[in-house]
Amino acid sequence: MGKAHRPSDETSRKFTEALLNKNNRPLKRQRSNRSARSATSSAKRRQHEDGCVTCLRGTLHCYNVFILIVGCAALGVGIWLLVTDFGARKVTPIVGNQLYEVTTYLLIAGGGAVALLAFCGCCGTIREDKCVLSFYGTTLAIVFIVLGAACGLAFFFRSELASKIKTRMQDSLSLSYGVDVRTNHENKRITDAWDAMQRQLQCCGIEGNVTSVSSWMFYKSNTKWFNSKSENILKKVGGTFMVPESCCAPGNVKICTGEEEFRGPPSYHNNHNPEYRKTNPYLYTTGCYDALLDYLHTYSAVVGTVAAVVPLFLVFGIVISFCLCSRVSGYSHEDEVDL
Fold first, then answer.
1. Which of 26, 65, 141, 173 is the most exposed, fewest CB within 10 Å of its CB?
2. What are the DSSP calls for 103-128, one per residue?
3. Strands 235-236 and 239-240: what pairing?
4. Cα separation of 4 and 281, whole Å?
């Protein structure tokens, strides 16, 4: 019985092996064809990378390092203009115009965004990720628009600088300086701004020189600060304040402010007796208007120049990133077709 069944088992085993071999041949041939196509596609891709893509990738890497430095520089300039003693936030209450402050914030935002995008650009270049590269290029375009707006505002502010500034200075100093600074937030901002400006620009009052009634003399003749009877502002033991301490050069503050007797400003003004016309070495006697105009012309030009130069470099990065993005997307599509 066992011998009768052996030929049948042997025949069944050979038939199964033949069937498996027959089914495996197309799989091997198909895999071989895929491997050949993949090798061809990889060879084509390497040929392309040896030329255009390699050049674009290397250029974008160098560009990202450079733009990181440029972005950090723009960010640093913006922060410095904001936090300096007489910065952008102190200018606004005096001139009654927020353009300079807004321009500074735009410069900070643009510089910070450029520095951050440089890192994203490096990641997108290394990975050759289409989404990252597209995001990088699009955001660079947005930053380009922001910095362009900052540049326009800076130069517009510069051209409109002298308009109504003197009137605004007179009103703020006459009506708001040193008045209710503990309860009135706006008056405190104006007082702090005037003090910062007079210390920074080494000036006192509105305009003119030592003989002018609009320079240091303006405090005595036209301000509520002087006419007020508030003890913490006007009077201290030994005398009366004629000018604030922010009008004082380093040295004897009491002689400067009039708290201590001095035969000259600020106690005496245009006196016919030569003995009462001495120069006070501790008092700034030049008004602030001309110094303020020079200061704002200089720093608005700095902001405008930085905001104009950075976008020129951004155009280069936008073009490179979208070119590389186009090449990367083309390769992935080609690979999908080949497979």
1. 26
2. HHHHHHHHHHHHHHHHHHHHHHHHHT
3. antiparallel
4. 132
Output b/e per residue, 306-329; b: 16+ Cβ within 10 A.
bbbebbebbeebbebbbbbbebbe
Using CA atoms, how far apart are residues 189 and 201, in angstroms rounded to an integer?
18
Q: Which amino acid is at 303?
A: V
Give Cα separations from 156 to 28, 107, 300 (angstroms). 73, 15, 9
Cβ-contact 117, 136 below 8 angstroms: yes
CB neighbour list of residue 165: distance below 8 Å, 6 or more residues apart: 94, 95, 96, 289, 292, 293
Work out the angle between the directed axes of helices 88-95 and 54-83 (0-180°, nearest 10). Answer: 50
Element (H, E) at 236: strand 235-236
Place of tokens 């040929």: 47
Half-sphere exposure of 94 (CA within 13 A, CB side): 26
Query: Over its length of 339 residues, how does the chain's per-residue pLDDT go in tens digits?
Result: 444 444 555 665 655 555 445 454 444 444 444 444 444 444 454 444 545 667 767 777 788 888 888 888 888 888 988 888 888 888 888 888 788 888 889 889 888 888 887 776 666 556 656 676 677 778 778 888 888 888 888 878 777 766 678 888 999 999 999 888 888 999 999 999 999 999 999 999 999 888 888 899 899 888 988 887 444 444 444 457 789 999 999 988 888 988 888 888 888 776 666 666 678 889 999 999 999 988 888 888 888 888 888 888 788 777 777 776 676 544 444 444 344
